[in-house]
Amino acid sequence: MNIVYSALVVVHFVGLASLLGGFLVQMSAAQRGINPAMFHGILTQLVTGLALGGMRSAQIGTEEAANPSKLAVKLGIAFVVAVIVVIGRRLDADRQQPYWAAAGGLTLVNVVVAVFWV
Predict the structure, then answer these.
(1) Can you tell me the distance from the alpha carbon of 97 to that of 91, in angstroms, rounded to the nearest whole number?
(2) 88-94: long-range contacts at Cβ-Cβ below 8 A with a sequence spacing of 24 or more?
(3) What is the pLDDT at residue 117?
(4) CA dihedral 53, 54, 57, 59 (to 10 degrees)
(5) For position 118, what pLDDT does the model report?
(6) Closest CA to 1 of 63, 71, 47
(7) Which of 43, 38, 54 has its CA nearest to residue 1?
(8) Which of 7, 44, 59, 81 registers the highest number of CB atoms within 10 A of its CB?
(9) What's the distance, CA 84 to chain centroid?
C-alpha cells in the first residue's frame, strides 16, 4: 500500500502544479481569469486529497497518524477553492478576476497550512 499512497501523493502534487501553475500563468495576462488548468487541478486536488486523508486516517501506507483538524481545514479550503473556480468559470471573462485572485490566494494558504501545521 505504500506504493499506492506514494502514487496518490505524486498525483496530488500534479494537481497542485496545475492549479497553481494555471494561476501564475494568468498573472501576466491583461484579462486574468479561471483557466482549464485551474479547474482540472482543483478537481485532482480534491479527489486525491480525500483518498490520501482516508488512507492516512486508517494508517494505510504511512506510519504517521492523521491530524483530523488539519485534514478538515485543508478540505474546507479546497472545497471553497473548488466552488470559487466552478462559479468563476461560468462568468464572462471580464468578471473572473476576483475569482481568479481568491482561488490563487486560498491555494497558497492551503500550501502554507500543509507545510507549517505540524
Answers:
(1) 10
(2) 88/33, 88/34, 89/34, 89/39, 93/31, 93/33, 94/31
(3) 94
(4) -110
(5) 86
(6) 63
(7) 54
(8) 81
(9) 12
> pLDDT tens across 51-83, in order?
999 998 888 877 777 899 999 999 999 999 999
pLDDT along the chain (118 residues), means of 10: 93 97 93 96 97 89 84 97 97 95 97 95
**CB within 8 Å of 9: residues ≥ 6 apart:** 48, 52
CA atoms of 107 and 82, how far apart (whole Å): 10
Count structural domains, the chain: 1
Q: Furthest-apart CA pair in the chain: how many Å?
A: 48
Look up the domain containing 95 and give its range.
2-116
Structure confidence at residue 25 (pLDDT): 94
